[in-house]
């Protein structure tokens, strides 16, 4: 009996608790075991290494913020963050001015594919700032999303059944000329599905042979210079759009080749620490604050966060989540009072300093008293400077500094331009950072630099309302720089939905 009891004890899984695993490029938070979160961290680091192998960073010395990934345990956790999230969505990636993070449903079979798709986008913008055509931005993410990243057997070039199904609906194919120009004014979800499937297939085809891979490099460089996509296709690949469509159909009919990575990828170093018990009460509230709140939901969430802060009065996260929700519900004085407690207890907390700086600037903007406004603005900059010292890689601090400075009569100074460029380099995925940097550069007559900053994001096939202004500013920058003006008809339409067959839920 004693032997049996010992055997049962040995077979029991390790007790799960809230943990944080940190690697060179990621921070992963989850209610799981040390072994599980460590393995997950190494898996996503392997994926990063594989992307770097195929698309090396432009600069060897690039320093980027780490992407935070949260491991949700089923649908209930997912709805705590996104109450109306569609059934069956196994994760999402959120990029906003106040936060960039990813959430995956650890119980969903397709969560890896969703994360890999979205991280491929994140990686491309973060590490390889180039003006790629929209089909390649999407095709690159789709090409690597189904990768099998198991240790010792890494495979890529796999297909998603939904994409193949869409390609087999031959009458729904998007004209190749429209695909190359990234025109997404499509009449139905089936046509949208065809666009993304064709983008994947074209990427798979071009990367499937060394000669085509070399041709692709010349084609991408030509399109980045502003050359017409159809002309560049004939010049660098020797095909018309219709001929390319015939090639793709033939390539698909022969069967899709799956590749095994022959070289070993480095094994990541992982540091795991236990998080306070209060994490369970506040972690999803913290992420929920990054989404739009209506009045009723906002007040209920504030009450929930306040209860967590009262239950754990000496813990940081419940207080920070409360302050964020107070700010989102326009209780700026309440947020300020809450943050004073956080800053007093944790003076080197960069996020709290950023948040306090942002709240004080918003209070200044709302004040009709000139002297009070000046004092609040100065106090805001003190907190933002402290946040910068604590974490110079937090793009939110730079954006807050720009907002703090905007009312100054000499804005933008050369230092303001540097601040805007820094925000962009840290978070090039955001329309706001690109727009701020583009505007600042253009104010100094640096039109070519502005076009360089604005170009990559303008082609983002995920669209989004914020990109409309980016694209308009890009056209102005190119014109003033003496470059050919890219028509907005050749750019992806804002807000076009992802194809439903493989829903990489991108929250733009």
Characterization of this structure:
By secondary structure, the protein is an alpha/beta fold. It is built from 22 helices and ten strands. It has helices spanning 2-11, 34-54, 75-81, 111-127, 134-144, 161-168, 176-180, 189-206, 210-224, 229-236, 241-253, 279-288, 295-311, 316-328, 332-345, 350-366, 370-390, 395-405, 414-426, 431-443, 447-458, 466-480; strands spanning 17-22, 26-32, 67-72, 91-96, 99-105, 148-150, 153-156, 259-260, 271-274, 505-507. A seven-stranded mixed beta sheet has the order 9-1-2-3-5-4-10. The chain has a three-stranded antiparallel beta sheet with strand order 6-7-8, with helices on one face. Helix 15 packs antiparallel against helix 16. The relative contact order is 0.11. Residues 1-15 and 488-508 have low confidence and may be disordered.
Number of helices: 22
Net shape: globular
Helix content: 55-70%
SSE-based structural type: alpha/beta
Provide mean pLDDT, rounded. 88
The total strand number stands at: 10
State the low-pLDDT regions, or none.
1-15, 488-508
Features:
508 residues; alpha/beta; seven-stranded mixed sheet; three-stranded antiparallel sheet; 22 helices; 10 strands; disordered N terminus
At a glance:
By secondary structure, the protein is an alpha/beta fold. Helix content is 57%, strand content 9%.
């Amino acid at each position: 009996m004693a032997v049996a009891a010992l055997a049962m004890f040995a077979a029991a899984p390790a007790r799960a608790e809230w943990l944080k695993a940190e690697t060179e490029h990621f921070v992963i938070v989850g209610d799981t075991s040390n072994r599980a979160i460590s393995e997950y961290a190494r898996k996503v680091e392997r994926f990063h290494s594989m992307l770097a192998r195929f698309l090396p960073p432009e600069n060897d010395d690039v320093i980027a913020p780490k992407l935070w990934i949260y491991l949700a345990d089923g649908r209930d956790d997912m709805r705590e963050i996104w109450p109306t999230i569609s059934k069956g969505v196994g994760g999402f990636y959120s990029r906003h001015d106040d936060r960039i993070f990813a959430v995956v449903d650890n119980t969903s079979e397709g969560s890896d594919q969703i994360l890999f798709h979205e991280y491929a986008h994140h990686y491309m913008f973060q590490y390889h700032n180039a003006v790629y055509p929209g089909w390649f931005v999407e095709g690159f993410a789709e090409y690597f999303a189904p990768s099998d990243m198991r240790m010792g057997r890494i495979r890529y070039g796999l297909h998603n059944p939904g994409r193949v199904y869409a390609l087999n609906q031959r009458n729904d194919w998007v004209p190749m000329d429209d695909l190359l120009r990234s025109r997404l004014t499509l009449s139905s979800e089936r046509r949208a599905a065809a666009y993304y499937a064709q983008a994947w297939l074209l990427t798979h085809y071009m990367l499937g042979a060394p000669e085509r891979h070399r041709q692709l490099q010349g084609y991408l460089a030509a399109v980045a210079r502003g050359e017409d996509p159809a002309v560049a296709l004939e010049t660098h690949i020797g095909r018309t759009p219709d001929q390319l469509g015939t090639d793709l159909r033939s390539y698909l009919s022969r069967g899709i080749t799956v590749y095994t990575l022959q070289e070993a990828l480095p094994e990541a170093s992982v540091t795991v620490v236990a998080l306070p018990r209060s994490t369970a009460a506040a972690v999803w509230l913290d992420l929920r604050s990054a989404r739009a709140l209506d009045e009723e939901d906002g007040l209920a969430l504030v009450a929930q966060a306040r209860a967590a802060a009262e239950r754990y009065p000496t813990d940081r996260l419940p207080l920070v989540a409360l302050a964020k929700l107070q700010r989102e519900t326009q209780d700026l004085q309440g947020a300020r009072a809450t943050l004073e407690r956080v800053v007093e207890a944790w003076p080197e907390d960069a996020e709290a300093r950023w948040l306090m700086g942002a709240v004080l600037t918003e209070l200044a903007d709302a004040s009709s008293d000139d002297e009070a406004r000046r004092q609040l603005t100065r106090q805001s900059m003190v907190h933002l400077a402290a946040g910068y010292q604590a974490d110079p890689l937090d793009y939110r601090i730079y954006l807050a500094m720009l907002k703090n400075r905007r009312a100054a009569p000499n804005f933008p100074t050369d230092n303001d331009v540097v601040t805007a460029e820094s925000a962009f380099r840290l978070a090039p995925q955001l329309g706001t950072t690109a727009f701020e940097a583009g505007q600042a550069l253009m104010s100094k007559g640096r039109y070519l630099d502005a076009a360089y900053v604005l170009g990559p994001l303008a082609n983002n096939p995920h669209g989004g309302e914020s990109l409309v202004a980016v694209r308009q500013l890009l056209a102005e920058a190119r014109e003033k720089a003496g470059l050919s003006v890219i028509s907005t008809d050749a750019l992806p339409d804002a807000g076009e939905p992802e194809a439903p067959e493989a829903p990489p839920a991108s929250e733009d």
